[in-house]
Amino acid sequence: MSEEMDKDSIGETPSEDQIADPNCLSDDEETTLSQETFEEALREKEQFRSIAQRAQADLVNYRQRASQELEESRRTVQFGILSRFLGVADDLSRAIDNLPDDADETWIQGISLVARNLSNSLEIEGVQRIEAIGEQFDPYQHEAIMYEERCEEEGTIVSVIQDGYKLNDRILRPARVVVAQAKNLQEEQIDPEKQEDEQEEN
Hints:
- It is a single chain.
- About 60% of the residues lie in helices and about 15% in strands.
- By secondary structure, the chain is an alpha+beta fold.
- It has a domain at about 130-190: Nucleotide Exchange Factor Grpe, Chain A, domain 2.
- A 3-stranded antiparallel sheet has the order 1-4-5. The protein has a 3-stranded mixed sheet with strand order 2-6-3, with no helix packed on it.
- Strand 4 and strand 5 form a beta hairpin.
- The longest helix is centred in the first third of the chain and has 71 residues, at about 25-95.
C-alpha cells in the first residue's frame, strides 16, 4: 500500500524539464498573455494614430496661417503703393481743373490722357472712388472738414474737398467733405416783443 502511494506521488512530481524551463506555461496562461499583448498593441496603435492626426492637423493649421499671413502681407504692400498714387491722381486732377485759358491744346490732351490712364490703372487694381455728393455722411468713408447751414437734409454731403478711395472693403483714404447742417430756426424766428416795439416806433 505504501509502495503504491509512493509510486503515485512520484508520478505526479513535475519532470526536470518542466522545473528547469521557466517559460513553460499552461494553455490558460498563454491565452491570458496573448490577450494582454494584443490589447497593448491596440493601445499603442491608437496612440500612434492620435499622434499622427495631431501632427496632420498642426500641419494644416500652419499652412493656413502661412497662407493668410502671405496674403495679408501682399495686401499691405499693395495698400501702401496704391495710397502713394492717390497723391499723383490729385495733382493731375488739380492741374486739369486749373488749366490756363491760353494753354496749348496738345498739352491739355496729353495731361488728360495721363490722368485717364492712371485712373484706369487704379480701377484695374480694385481701387474705387468713394461716392460723396448727395450721400449721407458716413464716418467710415467720409471725413467732415466743415459744416454749412443748408436747405438740404442735415447730414447730407454738399461738397467734396478731396476725393476718397477704397480698395475692395478697405478705405485707402476717406473723402474730405462739407456736410449740410440744419439752420437754426430760433435765430430765424422774430421775437414777438421786439416786433411790437419796432411797430410802435414806426
